[in-house]
Amino acid sequence: MRIVIAPDSFKGTVSAQEAADLIGSGIRQAVSGTDCANNLEIIAIAMADGGEGTAAAFHGEQITLPTTDANGRLTEASYVYDDATHTAFIDVAAASGLPQVIDDLRPLTADTFGTGVLIADAQTRGATRITLGLGGSATTDGGTGILAALGASPLSATGYALQPGGAALRDLDSIDTAQLNIPAAAMEWVLLADVVNPATGPTGSAATFGPQKGASSEDIAALDAGISRLCEVCEIDPTTPGMGAAGALAVGITWLSTLMHGTSSHVHLLPGAAVVAEATGLAEYIADADCVITGEGRLDSQSLSGKVVGEVLKLTHGTPVIVVTGQSLISPPAQATVLELIDADPQAQFIDAGHRIAALLNVSQ
Q1: Domain containing 202 — which CATH number?
Q2: Of all residues in the chain, what percent carry a pLDDT higher than 70?
Q3: Same domain, 221 and 171
Q4: What residues does 154 pair with on adjacent strands?
Q5: Which tens digits make up the pLDDT trace of 102-128?
Q6: Distances, alpha carbon 84 to alpha carbons 91, 123, 132, 133, 223, in Å
Q7: The pLDDT of residue 364
Q8: Domain boundary at 273, 294, 313, which?
Q9: Full residue range of the structural domain in which residue 9 is found
């Protein structure tokens, strides 16, 4: 039997690789000493969809440097740099993520400046392409923090630099590029989104994701107005699917690249899960699998649209799938069995899941 284990990370608990390895260990423990032990092949693949852990799915050197979090506090963050392809793989969540500021949420002023520091550093190392994983941000600033880190300053009508964050963008009049880091701005941009939401409106970035970033109803209105104004000044269509990912970060990047090249042809807004699946060769592994195991922290209505679980299900073509999750809020998708984790420490949770999966597959007898 060949089993492919391809989960997303379980945010705040274990990485995708840790989840896959622990589940695999649990299955192997369950079959130890049985006839199945020598005829069982387990392939563990760390998946991601643009959120936390996306950069780790790609090959390269890990670079760690000082930067700032979404609240402007000094921190350290890492990204992956592949010198062979001159590509930097950066998770927005690494510097500008929600976990780093969960103790002090500031939805109106949180910004992506710290991510811009990583981007600028990558360019100095020879990067000509930036692949940004857009999930898990604490920000709704339209990417203006990145612009500021690259020397493009959002200004009010009176010529003063705006305060960080999305709310201040309501007063945006222009963006000063006198100090622009031109080599960084001119790079190729691959933006990996884990959602299809537009930038603004009732299903936009602020309305949909603002509450989890600490935004009240009044904050959401202010942020949505700020992103709307940014789209107006930057001449960006806010209804583009995926433009709302990471606090509408793609708005600022698209404006920047268009400024440099005359068109947006150097910006590629793509579904993160599909790109990671292709990079890892997941479809080829699944084609010969007898069972596929995937999972994420919470299985909900978004899981089947742009997320890892949905991408895995799309690739299985009838192969049995087991979805491991901490909490399931929807009915099991077709061909899938949902297995909820027990209440225990992370290692015990996933080892136990492996034991139960072995029983479900009847390979522990």
Answers
A1: 3.90.1510.10
A2: 99
A3: yes
A4: 175
A5: 999 999 999 999 999 999 999 999 999
A6: 20, 14, 18, 20, 40
A7: 57
A8: 273
A9: 2-45+281-361
